[in-house]
Each structure stands twice: as structure tokens, then as C-alpha cells.
Amino acid sequence: MSTSDVTRDGIRGAHPGREARVGGTGEQRWRPRGQRTAAPEYSPDSYYGLPVLNPPRWAATDIAGYFFLGGLAGGSSVLAAGGHWTNRPGLARPAKLVALGAVSGSVVALVHDLGRPARFLNMLRVFKITSPMSVGSWLLAAYGPAAGAAAITDLTGWFPRIGATATATAAVLGPLVAAYTAALAADTAVPAWHEGHRELPFVFVSSAALAASGASMIAAPTAQTGPARRAAVLAAAGELAATARMERRMGMVAEPYRTGWGGRLMKAAKALTVAGAVGGALLGRRSRVAAGVCGAALLVGSACTRFGVFHAGMESARDPKYTVEPQRARVRERAARAAEENVA
Amino acid sequence: MPTNQFSGPDPHVAASAGHRDAPPRYGFFTDTSVCIGCKACEVACKEWNAIPEDGLELTGMSFDNTGRLGADSWRHVAFVEQRKPLVGPPPDESHRGVDALAAAAQGVTVPEQGGWPAPLVPEQPGRGGDGGSAGDTDLRWLMASDVCKHCTHAACLDVCPTGSLFRTEFGTVVVQEDICNGCGYCVPACPYGVIDQRPDDGRAWKCTLCYDRVGVGMEPACAKACPTDSIQFGELDELRERAAARVEQLHGDGVGSARLYGHDPEDGVGGDGAFFLLLDEPEVYGLPPDPVVTTRDLPRMWAHVGVAAATMLGGLAAMFVGRRS
């Protein structure tokens, strides 16, 4: 039954869905978030352009933020130990505090991203070497208290022996905390992460060293941040080299690192890193202000790298071509080799 | 036999996971050549497993309004409409548009099996007098009921940090919902895009191969409901034999495009517990052409992580040596 009336101002009382356009508007639950649907064309390379993989449900601020904070904490613990044992208390103390703050923030981010935050402790229910997240949880469980003890003993002056042990422990575990997140990302089917599994750990530790150096340049007196400034130059070179090598090896899967959000963030990261490291080396000793600005550039650059890697991975999971094309090339290669062997 | 291998064939997958006196490995053989797209499997799965409603929406792309597998779709029937004849050479071996002389000049190798068998479809009486056979049209519908593959080397299970995902005595892979804390790691780990998190609930969900039914000697709900036996449940070894015979039969009938997917224990995931007979390339159905369990490369990843961490520690320490500033 039609209940609508035709009036001078148009049709009144029509059922709102009467002229609904199938697939023409609105979002659909299985579509990548934020993408409008038009009736997809059939294409022989994919199933209506839908992703082959289920893209991660991780929130960028939680997980990329976690990568960044874990790196900042791990790197800071090494600088703190360096400062501790080379009599640079002005470097050691802020570095220890940064490490404690960053590792606390990273745990908050991790728990916040869980679908069932109340079950966080289930992470320590088993230990599985096959799961970087399991290994990482145990690492954090050991590193976090060490970083905390190092900071608190430094602040209060209590238990200097325990403080020294905690500082050393945090310095040894810190680089592992900074590096394991690369395996966490790479141990997935996400093409732009998995295909980078050789270089990504080096990108991540470089980025971690840059963030830690940046934080030290902001927080510590210039007379004591020489090691941080030199570390920034070395780490910047390392990050540029590792990233370039990773993209070269990946082939077409490197595309999301050059285009879209991933590309923009990676470019920003490069510019900030180089500016921060070079500026810090040239001016960081003379000017406290310049040291602060360069330190901030390094921190933001490191965050850009983490978010860039995160977004590149998400994009590579959403677009089926990054999954299908390299795999199809592999199949063809194998077929060609088999044919050659048959002929021979 | 090594019990901690990350890839390659594993004929005793339940035993490798620690089950003693495990029953034979069970699985699905989904023969898409007889799928009629009725979606009874999707409905039966939803009903039996009490999977919540997840939106009644029209995709506008085909009769497929489910879209893909996910937390609330453990069976998914794909619909593909193609301008291709059902009977004939495999789509990638069609010689239409190939310049034979140019190819000869380049020196092309001969196909391994000497090409596809000639169409052998008998003319059907009472079908009109045009002499065309039943399969001799330019249009075909591909329908395929997709499901969790219950991989021999399951990435979701490998990366699960809580032990919520586990290997059952039947060789299948199941989530324990009372343990899952919704970390979401299994979601991007799956090379097939099967497992997913339910947003309002937070936990990860996927096909259990009806662990509850199989445990008491019943077949999974989808296989039970399938009216054409496109979904066949049984012991994996037997299903593999049956599937190989079916492919041969179809090839004999001139359906050169028939091929098995996920049946090979030598593939990147050590073979699937749920495998398929397809009539086109896997990617046409939304399946990855050559999936590899990500943990195959994990030993190398850990090695690189170790070297990177040591480099960082050494590099930063070196910055403190020498100059006093």
C-alpha cells in the first residue's frame, strides 16, 4: 500500500527506504572503515576488490603509540646507564624518568587496545616463543619494574646498589623492548610488515635511539648530552639506510610506504630526523634552545616513523593487490621452474 | 619427528600439539562445483553456534550479502558471475588472443601435461535443437562456501599470547572464549582473513569446525545442512582421496578449470584441514593464491631482532667512549 501524497513541495509521506539505492550509499560493515561503497566492479584479480586479509583492528594511537613509547623507554634506559656510569647525572636522571614514564604509557596503551582490558593478565598465562606479543609481555614484565626501580632510586637516593643493578638490567632489556615490536608487526600476514621482517628491527631500534636522544637533548643540560647528539647522527644514518634497504627488497609492497598516509608520515619522519640529528650535532652544544628544538624534531620524527609503518601496513592489508600480486608471482615462478626441470 | 616445526608437512598435527592417542584429523572438503549458493551453511552455522546478527545489508555487488568471513560469519558463500564458458580450458590456458608465431620466436616451453582434455560433454536430449550442450554457454556462476582452513601450521594459534587459541584432538583450531583477552593479534596473522574481533564484545571469533558436535560424533552444522554435499566432512586423508578423484572426474568431463586448493601438505601452511575444489584462480574467490604461515620466518625475525638490539646497545654505549662532553 502506498501512503505517500504528491504535493506542490514534492512527495510527502513516502517510506524512507523506498528508493534506497542498493550499495550506492552508506558504509558497510566489512568495508575498510571510512571508505564509501559504490557497487564494486568484478575484477579477475580479487573478489570485488575486497581485502583478502582481515586488517588489524588495532587503533593507531594505541599500537603505533606503543611502538613509539616502547622505543623511547628502551633507548632512554641505555642512555641512562651510559650517563650513570660516565658521571653524567644530568643525563642519567631525566633519561631514567623518561624511561619510566614512557614504559608506563606504553603499558596503558597496550591494555587500552585490548578487547577485554580486564583480562590483561592472561598475557602472562603462558610463555610462547612463537608469539612476539607473549615474549613482549614477559619482557615488559621484567623491564618495567627495572626501569621503575632505576628512576625511583635515582630520585630518592635510596638503595644505590639496587639502583645500579636496576639501571643495568633496564639498559640490557631496553634494546630488546625497542626491537621486539618489529617482530610483533612482522609476524603477521600484513604484506608491508611481513616482507620487511629483516630490516624492520633495525628501523625500529634506530627510531628508538632517535627518540631517546631527542628526549635527552630536551631534558638534559647541553654539557652532558654529547653522547645523545652523536647517537642521533648514527641512528639517523642507520634508519635511512635500513628503510631504503627495506623498501628496495619489498618491491611493489613498498608502495604504501611512499603513498597515502604511510608515505606522508615516512617523508615527514625523514625530514625531521635529518634536521634534528644534523641540527643537534651542529648547534646542540652551544644553544639550549636549539638543542630543545632539535630534540623535539627527533621525537616527532620517531613517532612519524612508527605511525608511518603502522599506516603503510594497514593500507597493504586493505588493498588485495598487495596480498595477491606477490603470491601470484611466486606461483608463476614455481610453475616456470617446474616446467624448466621437466624440459631438462 | 620434530614436534616444534614452524612449516612443512605434519601428518600427526594433533600429536605434535601434545594430544596422546588422538583420533584421526577431521576436516572439510568443499566441492564448489556442486555449490548452488543456497547459503544453508551460513544459516545453519549461525543457528547452531548462536552467532549474533551483524547487520542486514545489501552489498549491491551480487547475491552475496555477507561479504567475507569474520567474527560473525564463519561460513561465507561467494558469488562470482563470469563471461566464461564452464566447459573448456582452464582460464589461464585459453589461447585466444595469443600470437603463436611470436610465442614460438621467443621459445616457449610446452605445458607440463600437454594441455587440457577436449570437451566431452554429451548432448542432452530434449534441450532444444541448437546442438549446444548444457555447459556450452558464455556465462557461468561460481559459488563457493568459504570457511576457516584449520591450517596444519596455524598462524592465529602460533601468535596467540594467552593460549586462548588451541589445537584440538581432531587437529582443528579453536578459540577458548573464556580466555581470549581481545589483543587482536590473530586477526592480521591469519593469511586467509578468517578470524576477526567482534567489536562490541572485544574477543576474537571464528569457525570451531563445530568442536561440540564433532566431539559427540556428529558432523558440523554446515555440512549437515548442505543439500548438495558441496560441503563434505570427514577424515582428512579420506577427503583428500575423494577430492583427487573428483578433480579427475571433472577433467574427464572437460571442466579443465577444476583444481584443488589447500589440499597440499607441501604448501605454505602445511596443508589446510578445510580445503576446496575451485573452478578458477583462488583470488577470484577472495582466497590468497599462495598463503604462507607468517611464523615460518619467525626464527629469522628473532635473529634479526637480537642483532638489532645488540647493535643498539653497542652503538649507544660506544657514544659514551672517549670524548668528555
TrEMBL record, chain A:
It holds the Pfam family NrfD. It is a multi-pass membrane protein. It is found in: Cell membrane. InterPro entries: Electron_transfer_protein, NrfD-like. Its main location: membrane. Residues 1-21 have a biased composition (Basic and acidic residues). The chain crosses the membrane at residues 63-85, 97-115, 135-155, 162-182, 202-220. The keyword Transmembrane applies. Residues 1-42 are annotated as: Disordered. Keywords: Cell membrane, Membrane, Transmembrane, Transmembrane helix. Belongs to the NrfD family. This is Polysulfide reductase, NrfD. It comes from Actinoalloteichus caeruleus DSM 43889. The lineage of its organism: Bacteria, Bacillati, Actinomycetota, Actinomycetes, Pseudonocardiales.
TrEMBL record, chain B:
Keywords: 4Fe-4S, Iron, Iron-sulfur, Membrane, Metal-binding, Repeat, Transmembrane, Transmembrane helix. The keyword Transferase does not apply. Its main location: other. The keyword Glycoprotein does not apply. The chain crosses the membrane at residues 301-321. Residues 1-21, 112-135 are annotated as: Disordered. It comes from the Bacteria. InterPro entries: 4Fe4S_Fe-S-bd, 4Fe4S_Fe_S_CS, FDH_Electron_Transfer_Unit, Formate_DH_Fe-S_su. Residues 26-56, 139-170, 171-200 form the 4Fe-4S ferredoxin-type domain. Pfam families: Fer4_11 (PF13247), Fer4_4 (PF12800). It is found in: Cell envelope. PANTHER family: FORMATE DEHYDROGENASE, NITRATE-INDUCIBLE, IRON-SULFUR SUBUNIT (PTHR43545:SF6). This is Formate dehydrogenase iron-sulfur subunit. It comes from Actinoalloteichus caeruleus DSM 43889.
